[in-house]
Each structure stands twice: as structure tokens, then as C-alpha cells.
Amino acid sequence: MILALDVGNSQIFGGVFESNKMRLSFRRNSKQGSSSDEIGVFLRTVLVENELDPASIKNIVISTVVPDLLYSLRGACTKYFNVKPFVLQAGVKTGLKIKYRNPLEVGSDRIANAIGATFLFPDRDIIIVDLGTATKFCAINREKEFLGGAIAAGLRLCMESLESKTAKLPSVEIVIPDHALGRSTIENIQSGLYFGHLGMIKELSQRLAEEGFKGHKPYIIGTGGFSHLFENENLFDVILPDLVLKGLLVALQINS
After folding, report:
1. Cα(135)–Cα(153) distance, rounded to whole angstroms?
2. Angle at Cα 59 formed by Cα 54 and Cα 63, nearest 5°?
3. What residue spans define the domains of the chain?
4. Measuring CA to CA, how many Å separate 23 from each of 20, 26, 188?
5. What are the pLDDT digits (tens) for 134-156?
6. How far apart (Å, rounded) are the C-alpha atoms in residues 198 and 232?
């Protein structure tokens, strides 16, 4: 079995694959300074609690945008699974042509998403909208050229910023509002978060299509923890919450 780990600023998102099929997925809050023992014990516990034998993990693949955690992640894999992990980073095979001015700037999570998308939907122009800590847009054409995209603060980051940077605005639950016209402070914030994000996704998707694909309609994929909030808004052709993990699996396979 293969363990795939996408380590972001807010969460560790993991999955276990067997014969290219996902057996398990899980999330855990990530924090800088986590030791290899903390991470290793957590990973083994998740597997055991889901009736999977940690000894059955023969390969581990990692992407991370938190460099300070990479040492602990490597240590956890070696100590608790006796596996040297494959890390998706500069210099490995991706099957993509990165059109950034500086290709090294592209986050490994975005690369993993792009690998997964082009594997699942070959010969298509694609826009990926990843709704996590940040909301990230990636445009990839049918020649597998990673054209670029856009990055904005995600829903939770926006909400936490309002809470921490103002004197009277409270923390709120991120939900789908019944209406845009809020009649309380909480409803006002929820409306601004949801409908503001909705408008941003529509606008940026349209502009990326016009600039990247000369107005031709791309296949739009929603992914990330908040993607299902917008599943009834006709924004996406498909929602694939596990896209990054599928991309990591493919990256491991093409580098094996």
C-alpha cells in the first residue's frame, strides 16, 4: 500500500492507496515544530484505528509547502514505517511544462493537483480551483503546460482576519447563507465570505479562460476542503476533493 501526504499550512491531508484505489483518507491540523515522533505516532494510529496494518505501507509520497516540517516528515517515515519517502519537489519528473517565470516558485501542492488533473482528463484545457487555506487557481492547457493562475486568501483565512484585526467582529461558522442581505453581524459576515468568494471564483475563472485559452471553455475542477460549499452553484464541471492525493500517487508512479 502507498501512503500519500499533502502537508499544508493548516492541515495534513493524507490518503492510503491500494492497487490505485483509495482505502482511506484523513486530515489533521498541522503545526510548525511538530516532531517526527508526533507525526509518526499519529500516522500509525490513524492506520490502526481504520484496521490497516502500518507494516503494509511500502511507499510514501509527500508534498509540502511548509519546509520546516519536511525534516520531521522524513524522520517519521523512516522511523515508524522504515520507508524513505518520495518528496515532490524541484528536479523530479512531473510530465508538466511549467511556464512560470521562475518554475521553482510553484507550490508542490499545485503541481500535484495539476498532475492529477492532466492524468484524469488528458487532452483538455483545465482550470483547477483549490479551496483551502488559500484559494488557488491553476490553468493547464491540453499540452500539459502549467500556464499560471491566481492566489487569494481562503474562506477561513478571511474569517480569521476579520476576527483578529477588528474589535467587534466575531468568529463565525462558514456556511451557505440563505440570502445575501444579512440582518445580523454574523449573517453579514457569512454573506460576505460566501458570496464574495462565489463572485471571485466566477470572475477569475472567466478571466483565466479568456487569457489562457482564448475564451475557449476549459474543464473546471473544484477541489480542497471548502469545494463542496459551492457544489450547487454551477461553478465546476466536477468536484474532486482528493485530487492532490491522486496527483501524488501519479507522481510517485512516474518517478519509480
Report:
1. 6
2. 105
3. 2-87, 97-248
4. 9, 11, 40
5. 999 999 999 999 999 999 999 99
6. 11
CATH C-level class of 2-87? alpha beta
Residue 130, CA distances (Å) to 139, 159, 167, 184, 256 in order: 12, 17, 31, 30, 27
> Which entry of 53, 68, 109, 237 is annotated as an active-site residue?
109
Helix, strand counts (H, E) of the chain = 6, 11
Same topology between domain 2-87 and domain 97-248: yes
CATH fold of 97-248: Nucleotidyltransferase; domain 5 (3.30.420)
pLDDT digits (tens, 9 = 90+) for 167-184: 888 889 999 999 999 999
Task: Give the pairing type, strands 11-18 and 134-140.
Answer: unpaired
Which residues lie closer than 8 Å to 71 by C-beta, 6 or more apart?
A: 36
Nearest Cα neighbor of 208 from 152, 153, 147 is: 147
Active site residue 109: yes
